Input
Amino acid sequence: SSGINAEYGGAKAVSKGASVTVHCTGMLTDGMKKFWCTQDPGQRPFTFNAGVGQVIAGWDAGCMTMVLGEKSRITMTGDKGYGSGGFPAWKIPPNASLTFELEVLSIN
Output
């Protein structure tokens, strides 16, 4: 922990190393084709440690600007997403720009 607890407008902010749980919808920016949604049947909210490289770079950077309860849309270039390898399992092509709609459910 950084020893810093930031609040914006009274809402707890995401901080480096915090365990963050989000609802997420991931889409290819080109055509906005959905490849993942935590609210689809059989899916669950996603939890990760913020700002420490556990998720793709664009997600980390975007989440670090968010507060508890906030909903945001984050769009990133391919180099901040899955890069030249893409993510074949989710049909994400190499260097694809991605858009994520995120809602911060909890910060611990």
